[in-house]
Amino acid sequence: MIKTITPVFVLILTILDLQAATVSSNNGNLRVEILAGGSYSVVVKEPNWTLQGTLPSLAADIAVGQAQDSVGFNQEISFTYTEAGHPVHGLIRLYGGSLCRR
Where are the domains of the chain? Predict the structure, then answer.
């Protein structure tokens, strides 16, 4: 009796949860954005200025919030990423048209 073995291939696809967050100043002059792939940008329209970069890993837990602290009212984008095997919490705040990064 000859047994036939049929190979079975299993393909598992992991689809990244493609999240992004953007906050802008009320006058639209300043915009902050972060993408799940880890890229971020801070864009000022006038004067024409851009800061952009990439985190050392994917960004996760991306969230947008609003708060008020001793500095004033702010919008913030919070996120987590991994650096050298350690989790890091990132936060970029937009205060009345200006930025404060922690």
Answer: 20-101
